[in-house]
Structure formats: structure tokens, C-alpha cells
Amino acid sequence: THFGFRDVPVAEKQKLVGEVFSSVAGNYDLMNDLMSFGIHRIWKRYFTATAQVSRGDRVLDLAGGTGDIAALLRPRVGETGELVLGDINGSMLRVGRDRMVDRGNVRGFSYVQCNAQSLPFPDGSFDLVTIAFGLRNVTDKDAALREMLRVLKVGGQARVLEFSEVPDWFRPLYDFHSFQVLPKLGRLFAGDSDSYRYLAESIRKHPPQEELKAMMEAAGFARCRYRNLSGGIVAIHDGCKA
Ligand code: SAM
To answer: Which Pfam family, an example, fits this chain (predicted)?
Structure first.
């Protein structure tokens, strides 16, 4: 492409996921706001504010799409830091890059089209690797977690922000919002209800808190833990490379 990105072969399902995001890239903010009543902005701020990162660090934000996470991490790594946005989808990456430039974020940013399952970076390249609302779309999550660990420096941290499991008492309301309200809002505002339905389903299939923590341990991360936000609508998982 004209980005000069590396071409990475993708499996059929990944291609479909890519198409879903191509069709929503333009309506992306609207989608997030509808899904979360705007609260995703607070989750992202908390996710980045509590990340283990310091000035001058090199950070990889996977499924970086719109650049929300990278923009929030910018002040934390400072002028000397480096932020790499990785995303499988060229349109999302383009949206992300345009927004970064609009926000005045140019120096210290780079954009790499890549699949989280096989990263085009050498071992030990980053102090922090993040993935926000992205792991759930990855076909082989174990492979992605192993890759995140591989590209981390020893002592570095990986963080996952993702939809998770809500308590039983909340489920009827949550399901109603996801399966009844969201697709209708999607059709109304974005002319697209299928993408919303896909998202609601992908959230239900994503491994819940304890299971994802166990997957991170199995991938080889040390000191794995998680924290629920908004009662488990989303959770932050993190682990370190020992
Ligand atoms: N991190 C951003 C945020 O929080 O606003 C974007 C999240 S968006 C819901 C999910 C992103 O994951 C999309 O941009 C999509 O292209 C990307 N994605 C899906 N599968 C991927 C994979 N296997 N490797 C890398 N990125 C992937």
C-alpha cells in the first residue's frame, strides 16, 4: 500500500473481521459512544493512566485503530518516547494516523499494518504492549498473547482492555441493550446493524476474567492480574515479562 506497510497474509476469518471494521471505521466513535454511553473514554483514560510506562519508553499499541490509546499514552512517554500503532486493517490505521496528525501528534509515532498473531518485530522491542478492544477479534488469542510477550523487554508490561463478564443480576439488562437496543441504534445512526450484532456476539464469546488471566499465565506472563471496571462490563488484564 502507499503506507509502505508490510503485507501480512491473513486467514479468512481475519479478513471478515477486517471487513467489519472497514465498514465501521468512519462511524467508529459514534459506535463506541452508543455501545458504552460514552464511558469508553473513561475506561481508556484509566487503562493508560495506570499502565507501567515511563518517559522515553517504546510502546506498541496493538489493534490501535483510531489511535485513542496511543494519544493517551503520548504524554506518559514524553518527547523521547516512541509509540507504534499496529492494526490489521489499513482503513482503521489511516483513520488513526489522520487523527494523530490532527491532534498535533506526529513525531514519535509510527504505523504498522500487522496481525497481532504474528508480529513483525524482534524479541524484546518494547517496554509496554497494549491492546484495547482488540483481543476479542483475534482468531488465535493464545498466539497473540505469546507474541505480545515475545516482543516485550524483560521487566516490560502487557495490558489488555476488553469487554468481560458482567454479574448475573445485570445480565438481562445488558443483553437487552446489546441485542435489542444497539443493533437498532446502529441501523438508525450508522445504517449498519450487522456490525453491532457481530460485536455483541464477540463480547459474549470472549473468555471471562479468570479464563483470560489463565491464558496470560499459560502464554508465559508473570504477575498476571485483572481489575473490573464498571462491574465487569470491561476488565483490564496485565502481566509482566520476568
Ligand atoms: N484500540 C482501539 C480503541 O480502543 O478504540 C480500536 C479498537 S477496535 C474495536 C478493534 C481493532 O482491532 C480494529 O481496528 C481491527 O482492525 C483490529 N484488529 C482485529 N483483529 C486484529 C488482529 N488479528 N491483529 C491486529 N489488529 C486487529
So the answer is: Ubie_methyltran
